[in-house]
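Running this now, will post back.
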Amino acid sequence: MTNRLTGKVALITGSDSGIGQGSAIEFAKEGANVVVHYLHDQSGAQQTRQRIEAAGQRAIVVQGDIGDEAQVEQLFRAAVSEFGTVDILMNNAGEDASGVEVADMETKLWDQKIRTNVYGTFFCCRSFIRLRKQAGGHGKIINVTSVHQTVPRAGAADYDCSKGAIANLTTTLALELAPLSINVNNIAPGMVLTPFNQQAVDDPSVREKQVQSIPLKRAAEPAEIGRLAVFLASDDAAYVTGSTYVMDGGLMQNQGQGA
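Update: finished.
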């Protein structure tokens, strides 16, 4: 622990499990107070809060649907009411691919994925930017996308397109917010042992089969993504903006082998 985030307040969406939970704990270890957000898993959110407090930091738990702009605004009001401000925003909450191909996809399903993943990130960024402008600038935005912003999968158009959109939002915001000294970066994970990969988490034989396409022959742990997020949230990354950090164990380098 190097206390790189001492005195900072981080709001991490979807921090009831997986990457969000792992990141919240790593942020707390570095001295940050954390706004823990969840949609359905209150128990998981409370577990995150307990881990943050065990690290010696403060936390609040706030429920809300990030696809609803009014609920996002309430999320930020709760954060400001408790901590006075938000210095770091990590947009982690999102929905996985439906597995439905475009020809068979109902508009309602497409809208659901885009509303959560893209609109939710947009709403949170907008609220954060307005708050930081009132504070005179400075701050960090970290968006979590996926290797699938670049590498497509059949049956995942809803997810892949949403992650590509967030990647472009990241680079656009990096330009818009540079005059305010707000850094905006993107983490694109590969396979991580989260509820998105629950079958691999539960069954080592499934996990062993799935990691064969990964050069490092393993999946990432959520805390590993969290430690990269800590770097991007810290002053160590003061000159980093508009970048995507792929964290995939070499998976994307392996895609063209044997062609």
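The chain has a mean pLDDT of 94. More later if anyone needs it.
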